[in-house]
């Protein structure tokens, strides 16, 4: 029967990076090595440097023995969550294409002096034309 293990994100594992609370990720598994820091043959600094990232390569390069790998099981607390982090979606509002009439009205409001001058000149021309007759 399969054993259920707790899943942790890499971000969550990276938060445990102090001598009082130290987690290490190796081969997709998370180990709480806080109690082992003093006993680690390479020193506590080696384990503290391995926090916050996947330390599988460093672990393999160190050439750990079979007994060291068996000892790790005592500190196993969970697995790295294999699902990728999905970034939060940003929503952008597309500017609506306004028609010619609304653009014209926007310009009229912004530049009111031009339409006022056109209306004034038209009124003067109309009055002069009416007097001529």
TrEMBL record:
Keywords: Heme, Iron, Membrane, Metal-binding, Transmembrane, Transmembrane helix
UniProt key word Membrane: yes
Subcellular location per the Swiss-Prot or TrEMBL entry: Membrane
Transmembrane parts of this sequence: 109-130
GO molecular function per UniProt: heme binding; metal ion binding
An annotated GO cellular component: chloroplast outer membrane
Similarity section: Belongs to the cytochrome b5 family.
Protein name: Cytochrome b5 heme-binding domain-containing protein
Organism of origin: Sorghum bicolor
Taxonomy of the source species: Eukaryota, Viridiplantae, Streptophyta, Embryophyta, Tracheophyta
């Amino acid at each position: 029967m399969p054993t259920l293990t707790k899943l942790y994100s890499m971000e969550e594992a990276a938060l445990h990076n102090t001598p009082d609370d130290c987690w290490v990720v190796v081969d997709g598994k998370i180990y709480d090595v806080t109690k082992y820091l003093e006993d680690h043959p390479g020193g506590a600094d080696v384990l503290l440097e391995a926090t916050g990232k996947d330390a599988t390569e460093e672990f393999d390069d160190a050439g750990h023995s079979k007994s060291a790998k068996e000892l790790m099981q005592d500190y196993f607390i969970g697995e790295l969550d294999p699902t990728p982090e999905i970034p939060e979606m940003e929503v952008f509002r597309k500017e609506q294409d306004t028609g010619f009439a609304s653009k014209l009205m926007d310009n009229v409001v912004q530049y009111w002096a031009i339409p006022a001058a056109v209306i004034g000149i038209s009124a003067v021309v109309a009055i002069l034309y009416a007097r001529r007759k």
